[in-house]
Design goal:
It contains 5 helices and 13 strands. It starts with 7 loop residues before the first strand and ends with a helix. Strands 1, 2, 3, 4, 5, 6, 7, 8, 9 and 10 form a 10-stranded antiparallel sheet that branches. β3 and β4 form a beta hairpin. It is globular and about 50 Å long. Bound molecules: zinc ion (4 copies).
């Protein structure tokens, strides 16, 4: 099953599984894992799964302490996964909507903004399904599920690429990045034309991107995020215009 396009990696043990299998796997894997070696790491937290509605091959599981606020969850999803330029966000939990006032609210554990002050334990029960919307104009929509409270593993044991944390939240599994291939020549691709998009033949290698009808300003780097190719995602890494210049 390792060749399944929707598979991802458990950062704790390295197993390759799909999104559905990973939830069951993590419950036992986290129980069996050695405890954190650093006292800065929380001992337990909610295990939460998140999957893109538009692009379900992008998904992740992470831990976040039950005493954290919605604003901390918001900051983690932004920083670890979907933020391009600090757009407005909203959670929908049990039919209630909780909105941020944008991404300029400072770091996690800063002043809560909008209606994101409630603590997670006040809102989320085991098995609770809820949603998150990033950017109301060009939305990236995520479906989330609170699995149950689990022990934290020792993040020091993770590969450097896998130490994806923000505040006290810690990513413990993620989909494998798609193998991006150029729609023109079939070579590995590193750019997405945001006018064409990833579904609309916008994925290209550098050479083909230079010859594309839309200019270098329209290109964003490929990335392992449901926000890939949208708005200004990944632009901080430099664009095609600079790569060509
Ligand atoms: Zn595992
Ligand atoms: Zn943006
Ligand atoms: Zn090409
Ligand atoms: Zn294009």
């Amino acid at each position: 099953m390792t060749d399944d396009v929707n598979n991802g990696e458990c950062f704790v043990c390295g197993d390759s599984l799909d999104y559905g299998e990973m939830a069951d796997h993590l419950r036992s894997c986290l129980d069996d894992a050695p405890p954190p070696s650093s006292r800065k790491t929380p001992s337990r937290g909610y295990l939460v799964g998140a999957k893109s509605d538009q692009r379900p091959d992008f998904w992740t599981y992470f831990l976040i302490p039950r005493s954290e606020q919605l604003v901390d969850l918001d900051q983690f999803l932004r920083e670890a996964w979907v933020d391009c330029c600090g757009h407005l966000t909203a959670f929908r939990i049990k039919g209630q909507r909780f909105e941020s006032h944008g991404g300029s609210s400072g770091p996690a554990h800063g002043t809560p903004t909008g209606s994101l002050a409630p603590k997670l334990f006040a809102l989320l029960d085991d098995g609770e399904e809820f949603s998150f919307e990033y950017d109301f104009n060009q939305p990236t929509e995520l479906s989330l599920k609170m699995i149950e409270e689990c022990p934290y593993p020792d993040v020091e044991e993770f590969d450097d690429d896998h130490k994806i944390a923000w505040g006290k939240a810690l990513m413990v599994a993620q989909n494998d990045e798609p193998e991006w291939t150029c729609v023109e020549c079939g070579e590995p691709a590193e750019w997405v034309c945001k006018q064409c998009g990833i579904e609309g033949d916008g994925v290209m290698c550098e050479e083909c991107a230079q010859d594309h009808e839309h200019d270098g300003e329209e290109f964003l780097p490929t990335a392992n995020s449901p926000r890939v190719g949208m708005c200004r995602f990944g632009e901080a890494q430099g664009g095609l215009a600079e790569a060509a210049g």
